[in-house]
Amino acid sequence: MDLYIIRHGESQGNVGIEVDDPHLTELGQKQAELLALRLRNINFDAILSSPLTRAVQTATPLAELRGKDITVLHELHEVGAYGEESLADVQKRAERVVKKIRAEYGEKENVIAFAHGTFNNHFIKAACGITSGEDFNFCQENTGVTIVRFIIDNGKPRIKLELANCGKHLENL
Hints:
Layout: E1 2-7, H1 26-39, E2 46-49, H2 53-66, E3 70-72, H3 87-105, E4 111-115, H4 117-128, E5 145-153, E6 156-166
Parallel strand pairs: 1-4, 2-3, 2-4
Antiparallel strand pairs: 1-5, 5-6
Helix pairs in contact: 1-2, 3-4
């Protein structure tokens, strides 16, 4: 299984516009469109998204391009979006999400998940089997692509961080 973990495009909140559930900016929409073009030839079985508007809006161009539905997974929401959470609680939520995805989609299916910078730090750690390290962060720029690959190597399960925070699709912006 390949798990693509993607941060949403630039949102109103990223440019200082304070609203409860920010939408993508014009630049964020362009980032989402370029991301869709980058991922158009990737074989994947599911598109998952946080319920927050900016994540769904980022997933939409890819879903439309590929004729796929977006499955909203509440647990992908940003840290603090629905009340206070301790870092330990966020990490546990991220671990539950990884376990749920791996159980539901199996070893041979590929999944793309659209979420948020702070949550994705914990999500990537959980996918890589890192259970501690509050002083360690995985950077997540807008529409940055991270790929965690779950493989069998010489009969043993392995986790491979294939790509981290890649924004190659944004080079011509």
